[in-house]
Amino acid sequence: MIREVFEDVLDNQRNLTRIEAYECMNDLISGEYPDTLISAFLIALRMKHESIEEITGLTESMKDHAIQIKYDPGEYLVESCGTGGDIFKTFNVSTTASIIASACGAKISKHGNRSVSSKFGGADALEALGVNIELSPTQVINSIEGCNFAFIFAPKYHIATKNVMKIRKDLKTRTIFNLIGPITCPSNVTARMTGVYDPKLVETVAEVSKNLGVKRGMIVHGFDEKGNKAMDEISNIGKTKVAFIENDDIRTSYITPENFGLEYANPKDITAPDNVEEHLNIIKKIINNVTETEKDVARMNLSLMNSASILYVADKVNSLEEGVECSRKAIEKGLVSKQLKQIIRYSHM
Question: Which residues of 300-312 are buried (b: 16+ CB within 10 A; e: fewer)?
Answer without folding.
Answer: bbbbbbbbbbbbb
